[in-house]
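Complex 256.
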Amino acid sequence: MNQPILDCRNVSYSYHNLSGETLALSNLSFQVQAGEFLSIVGPSGCGKSTLLSLIAGLSHPEEGEIIINIEDKSRIGYMLQQDHLFEWRSIRRNVLLGPEINHILSSEHQTLADRLLKDYGLDKFQYKRPCELSGGMKQRAALIRTMLMHPKLLLLDEPFSALDYQTRLMVSADIGRIIKSSKITAILITHDLSEAISLADRIIVLSKRPARIKKDLPIHLTLKDQTPLAARNAPEFSSYFSILWKEIADEYQKTN
Ligand code: ADP
Ligand code: MG
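Predicted structure with adenosine-5'-diphosphate bound:
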């Protein structure tokens, strides 16, 4: 088997504050192969965002280790629920922020920005400020900013949850298409099981806090080459949904 792009080995992490210790992750192990699209689902508060911030290197495991087989760690993209655009910069200057602050801004970045702004229907808005755009448009701008860094590993923490349902379907379909066509490895946290099934190659269900892996489910839809919207009509879709729903409902029924 190839060397995985991400190897989480026996990872534990707790938060410490005045009221005591909160064990968020306990002895969590899994691997992700290059090019794989993994989705992580689980009850709210179980430790999903904690796990992603550890993978992003924003904090470090208390026990265990996280091995990322990417030479240039700046090629880990991290996209959150809020778009985090800077209000005083135009959309274009927000999009070009990564290369600019890394002092690597080139004509190639400008060309890619032009193309993505156009593909995402933002070219006419590129000189506007974020407050002049809708939530969906801002989230698309945030995605372009992430993509301009040519990520090899893309970490997505509920990136669509601030969007209304129709925009969410459209933006998630776009993002799914881009990720698959550019063969980026992606980890998507979502609470939307249909979104996870329609986008991912594999879904991990986490238990209640402290998170452990409850289920590791490969997804094979016979409509695989179709869009994520069409994937929802695949014959296997509803049985995957029932399996995942049962696992999650099971966790919610448990008392602490
Ligand atoms: P999820 O993303 O699955 O909803 P999180 O990873 O954000 O969950 O949080 C996991 C647990 O850790 C929660 O119980 C949360 O209350 C706790 N937690 C998160 N951040 C902090 C923090 N900065 N200090 C103390 N506890 C925290
Ligand atoms: Mg979270």
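The beta strands are 6-17, 20-32, 37-41, 63-68, 76-79, 153-157, 185-189, 202-206, 213-218.
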